[in-house]
Amino acid sequence: MKAGVYIAKKKNGDIYYRSNITKNGRHISLGSFATEAEAHSAYCEAVSIFENADITLLNLKSYLKALSYDKAITLINFRDNRIYIKTPIYLGTGFFTYYLEGVGELKFDNDDLFYYSSHRILVHDGHLYVNDYGMQYGILARYGIKNFAVCGRDYTFANGDEMDFRHQNIIVINKYHGVRLESWHGIPVHAARIHLNGEYLIGRFSTDSEAAVAYNKAVDAATDCGIQKNFIQNYVLEYTPKEYANVYTAITLPEKYLNYLRSL
Predict the structure, then answer these.
(1) DSSP secondary structure string, 45-59?
(2) I need a surface site. Which of 13, 106, 207, 249 has the fewest CB within 10 A?
(3) Domains of the chain, start order
(4) Distance between CA 77 and CA 125 in Å, rounded?
């Protein structure tokens, strides 16, 4: 067999070829291939990456024919930083870059390195997510941003770069379902609204936590009236159970909303 190539068999007996390289005492799998020639080409490209410092992140793709882009990123990071990471991460100073083909370069804080070195980022219809314990989780969930959140309304990027996921760059505006920060007579308020055959304003509040409780109370009232809908209840961390109960009791649902529920 050619250098770096090993023959293997599938469960049904079909033959395929694996490519591997050993560098600095590390045995690295380069992938599986249909032919010996492809597997050897991947090996040769890996050798070139380690031996040719002129191959960089900027011109990497022009050197690749058999080796996957993801694997090539891991090799360049291993070459430059002496740390092997199985996901396509390149370490910087104080942050790291995750190279997601077809999407671009995602920046993260080093605090997230352990997580993303063991969780591969995937994309579907522009939605970035990871598989964790058999479930799909959007990467924005790590910042307390819900799946229903809208960029520019519920959260924003401080420097305008939507590929920069460093914590200081993400500003969460609306973290609760049914709650939005808006201006009312020039005063910033948190408005709670619920959509039931039209949108109903439940109230305007000085804090988002109080508005979240108001939304929850509106949901409870709708459920008590027999409305069957997959409502998303807010889990309000700012209150103890007793404080939550006091806020909940003090909130009065608007008459317009109650009249609608009575008419059902």
Answers:
(1) HHHHHHH-TT--TTT
(2) 13
(3) 1-65 (3.30.730), 179-262 (no CATH)
(4) 29
Share of the chain above pLDDT 70, in %: 100
Phi, psi of 197 (to 5 degrees): 55, 45
Residue 219 near residue 250, CB atoms below 8 Å: no
Inter-CA distances, 22 with 45, 47, 71, 206, Å? 13, 10, 14, 61
**What is the per-residue pLDDT across 120-156, written as a single tens digit (0 to 9) for each?**
999 998 899 999 888 899 999 999 888 778 899 899 9
Least reliable range by pLDDT among 24-28, 73-77, 143-147, 217-221: 143-147
Distance in angstroms (rounded) separating the CA atoms of residues 262 and 226: 11
Residue 124 in tokens = 């579907």
Which pTM does this prediction carry? Answer: 0.80
Residue-level pLDDT at 74: 97
Asked if 122 and 131 count as a contact pair (C-beta separation under 8 A), the reply is yes
Question: Which token pair is 77?
Answer: 């990071």
d(CA 83, CA 76): 10
Q: How far apart are the C-alpha atoms of 166 and 28, rounded to whole Å?
A: 30
Asked if 97 and 90 count as a contact pair (C-beta separation under 8 A), the reply is yes
Find tokens 């608007």 and name the residue: 254
Q: Reduce the DSSP state of residue 214 to 3 states and report it.
A: helix
